[in-house]
Every structure is written in C-alpha cells, then in structure tokens.
Amino acid sequence: TNPPVSLPLELISTSKCNEFAIFFHDKVQGIKNAIISTTQIATLPPARHLELTHFTPVTDKTIEEVISGLSSCTCCLDELPTRFLKSVLTSLLPQLVQLVNISFETGAFPKALKTAVIKPLLKKSSLDAKVLNNYRPISNLPFLGKVLEKVIYQQLTYFLLSNNVFDTFQSGFRPHHSTETALIKVTNDIRMNTNAGKVSVLVLLDLSAAFDTVDHRILLHRLENWVEISGTALNWFKSYLEDRTYFVEIGNCVSDKISMTCGVPQGSILGPLLFNLYMLPLGQLINSNNVSYHNYA
Fold it and tell me: Left, alpha or beta for 116 (phi > 0: left; psi -120 to 50: alpha)?
C-alpha cells in the first residue's frame, strides 16, 4: 500500500522527514504568495432554483456498498487494517452508519480524520535522490474519512448533475467525460475554424500546485453562491477544510505535524470535485470574451 522509499538509507531520519515537511509546505506557500490577490470574487453566478441545505441520512446498504467499492489499501493512520475492517463489516456496520449520519446531522467532519501522511516519491529514478525538489508528495488519508467523503461525493454529484452545475466544457473529474471528450471538442473547434477559412490559436494553461493552492474562503464562496449549498451542508464543507494537518513518513521515521491553511487534500475523493467547483467562473469569464475553451482539470 505504500510507495517505495527512494531515499538513500543514510538519509532516512526524523530530521530528513522534517526537512521534507517544511519543503513541501514552503513550496506551496511560495506559489500561493505569488498569486495576485483581489478584493473582488470573480463574476456573478448564474441563477439556480434549488439549493442543497443538508445531506440525506444513509442506510446500512449504502455504507456496505461504499466500503466494498473502495480500495483495501491501508495507511498508518488507520486503527484497523482495511482488509480486516471489511472482513468484520457486518458487526461494525451499525456504528459506521451512526458515525456518518451524526457527521451529516451536525455538519462536522471528525477531527481525527483530518490528518494526512505524506510519503516522498522520487519523480524519476534517474534523478538525484538527495535533492528534495526531485520528489513529489504522495498523500494517504484515513480509510473512514474516505468512506465519509465517498457518500458526500455521491450525493453532491447527484445534486450537481440534476441542476446542471458543471461547466458544459468541463471534462476532468466528471462522470462520462474524459481526456477523449476534451480532445474531440478541441479538435472539432479547430477543424470548424479551418473549414471557415479562419486561423486558430491554441493557448494551453497548466496551473502549478493547483489543488494545493485552493483558497478556502473562495472555495466556500463558490459552494454557497455558485452551487447554492447552505445550512448544515455548507457547515460540513467548512469543517472538512479547516484544521487539517499532515506529516511526512519515511520508513519508521516521521516528521512533526504541519498545518494546512489552503488547498484540498491530495489523495482525497472530494478534492478533484471541489477543485472543479472552485474553477466554475473561469469558463464564464473566457466565454464572455468570445473565446472557445475547454477545461480538463
């Protein structure tokens, strides 16, 4: 379940774990600090007729299906190995259902599930293993947190599809869309322009540390005003984002915990979906300038 340790054995230590933890934190903060701040929060959201005020309580069947469908990977944050939990699921099901429903009712994500363990993974085997910048952080989260996220993901996705909230030209992390639909759309736009005797200019934008630099204030504004989430449902997302921490683990060594003040959790189920909602105004802004566009992530 864990990525291979690529660090030389002599560098596996608590101090090296702390170096990685600070490096990953400072790298994100450096990118975030370079982003030009604004007092305005994007464009006006489209009018919607329905709102999501609360999440629907779950049944034993729902939780059983969710847990069975999730990967059996385990990390050091799990009190029980995932495979063992699945093997005794019948006995634990009532308590797990109660946990999920209390979380929904109170609009709170359990603090014990807000910590991530990060393992540095060398980007390429040919790179210098002693250079911190040659590693990417691989994040692991508690299994029970993923169960909660999966149920929220299902209910939120149903709401988004039912109310046409997704950007029409969004292909990434969206049901029935993929890189294939993105390529077909872009290729078709270029061919139509060519047939009309026009010239196409393709501008590609890739955001550095996109998930890690998500501003929580702006994301919550998107959820409230662009998606129409309110009440305990909005409180749940506030709780989900706040007071998160991570630590780095290499072998048997771990770093001190580092607070996460921005970003959506890497390796999470909700992260990609929340990022899509965070970026909702982008398409409207581009379209207002009569420019064809397509989003993938």
Answer: beta
**116 — phi, psi (to 5°)?**
-115, 145
Cα torsion 183, 293, 213, 124: sign: positive
Instruction: Say if residues 274 and 264 touch (Cβ distance below 8 Å).
Output: yes
Distance in angstroms (rounded) separating the CA atoms of residues 159 and 289: 29
Question: What pLDDT sits at residue 264?
Answer: 92
Cα of first residue to Cα of last residue in the chain, in angstroms, is 26
- Sequence-distant (6+) residues with CB within 8 A of 67 are 85, 86, 89, 96, 147
Averaged over successive runs of 10 residues, the pLDDT of the chain (297 residues) comes to: 58 91 93 76 68 96 96 91 95 97 98 94 89 90 97 96 87 83 91 92 86 93 94 98 95 94 91 93 85 82
Q: CA-CA distance, 46 to 245, in Å (whole number)?
A: 35
The two beta strands, 115-122 and 244-250, are: parallel
Amino acid at 205: L
* 134, 143, 276 from 185: Cα distances, Å: 35, 37, 18
Q: Are 138 and 205 in contact (CB under 8 A)?
A: no
Q: Which position has the token pair 């129409």?
A: 228
